[in-house]
Amino acid sequence: MSKHLLPGMYGRVSKEDKRVWRTSIVGLVHAVYDSWFIIKYFNDPALNGNRMDGYNPQFELFLALAMGYYAWDLTVCISNYKSYGPMYLIHAALGVFGILIMTSRHLQFYAIPFLLPEFSSVFLNIRHLLKSVGLSKSFVYKLNFIVFLAAYILIRIGFEFYHSVCLVATVYSGNTGNAFYPFAVYFAVLGVTLTTLNLIWLKQILIAASYTLSSKPRKQNVKAE
Q1: Torsions phi, psi of 110, nearest 5?
Q2: Distance between CA 88 and CA 90 in Å, rounded?
Q3: N or C, fewer C-beta in 10 Å, the chain?
Q4: Integer Cα distance of 223 and 225 in angstroms
């Protein structure tokens, strides 16, 4: 599609970067979609009124549609394991099983704190696309990186971590309502794991920031989910 919709930009992408371009386009579409429907249902009474048992059939449909991306992401992480490594495989697998649980009428509220962080991925994928067309030194690239970093810290680290801690406390106390208890435990582990991965990736992102914002050459490629 890029050949027809963005022929000028796509023509500037090197053969080596075309895979990055394609995965970034898919990731960008998904991140925009996720962010849109999560924000749409952010204050939904059915979900917020009961964090364990809250259910919204329309919200479930949006989650089911999002499942396609997570399944694709998992296959990409498996087929490109040497490039992405174990952390991205774990991240993708957690997402697939998490969506499966939430589309079975369990723990739907937690799609909000665990999927809203995809908002930062909007700017991450834009960053990859700008870099692919040789704009890594531009003002737009640097501005996009600043927005990405702010969203990552505020949402992925702050917002997600807060809800992860609250969920762990809830599961530990046994106040899981009618939710299948092993599912609640899984989501508690998922939250802790995601927070740990996010902190590991934050270190890499801050290293990248020192080069991006100071115009120094990058020493390594950084892919952060």
Answers
A1: -75, -5
A2: 5
A3: N
A4: 7
Residues whose CB is less than 8 angstroms from the CB of residue 158 and which lie 6 or more positions away in sequence, other chains included: none
User: Which residue carries 């479930």 as its tokens?
Assistant: 60
In the numeric block, which tokens belong to residue 29?
A: 């579409």
The pLDDT tens digits of the residues spanning 111-168 come to: 999 999 999 999 999 999 998 888 888 999 999 999 999 999 999 999 999 999 999 9
Q: How many CB atoms lie within 10 A of CB 26?
A: 15
Q: Could you tell me the residue ranges of all domains in the chain?
A: 16-212
Instruction: Summarize pLDDT for 181-224 with one digit per residue, the tens.
Output: 999 999 999 999 999 999 999 999 999 998 888 755 555 444 44
How many Å apart are CA 153 and CA 87, to the nearest integer? Answer: 19
